[in-house]
Amino acid sequence: MKTLREYLAWAEENQVAIGHFNISDSEGFKAVVEGAKDMSAQAGLNVPVIIGVSEGERDFIGLEEVVSLVKTARTNDLPIFINADHTYSVEKAKLAIDAGVDSVIIDEVEKTLEENIKLTTEVVKYARSKNSEVLIEGELGFIGKSSKLLDAVPIGVSEKTQTNPQEAARFVKETGIDLLAPSVGNIHGIVKTGEPRLNIERIKAIREAVRVPLVLHGGSGNKDEEFLEAIKAGIRIIHINTELRIAYKEGIEEGIRSGEIAPYKFLAEGVEEMKKVVRDRLKLFNRI
Ligand SMILES: [Zn+2]
Which structural domains are found in the chain, ordered by start? Predict the structure, then answer.
């Protein structure tokens, strides 16, 4: 079956983006798997999907456990991959690589550019020394930190802090990363006012300056047309987290309100709600 790198080339060729969904438990996993299967059946092709686990999420579900879940489920018909999302230390990135993830994001964006380059390079070198297929993603430009509902755009996020294309070119060249997460008007979480908008021109400029696929973080809350424009401009992976979290919570609340006490029944309502988000997003990102 195709590797994640091969699927990224496929996405480039077909001008689509691969959906990346964060989970923290087996219900989230079930929702992504079933949602991806539904969309594959509808599209008549095997739609690739990435499961993401942040440091907190992987501590909860277990790193080895989630890698094993994904690898066991993976077949030609279900091209599912596992990404160690925002990893804030070289040490934890190495642990994720050793555990057998398909990709790792080393996030040193709060450090100086020099420090970010140094630490990111260290992870790339380690990955290459392991002779594995693992892809390394670097991040440049601040996009906020927490995936939740926000009253306002986080402090430190503005057009000035968006990724500079020349700096991106240098960052990619010096570190040797496989994927780049830029700051292009995207933020983690959903801002109630609907701001900010994606900076499509900036995405195009970065894409022209670097050869690696671009990853859009903080996809929750953006409008459908914005996503389509971003994909056209060069985005090849889109992260969805906050929307899933809200859907899960609302589903479970509904299940509990009904008086149900069997976990597999009230949790199932959370799974159903998450599945709707997964299906909608895959449909849009893959133009199904
Ligand atoms: Zn992110």
Answer: 4-285 (3.20.20.70)
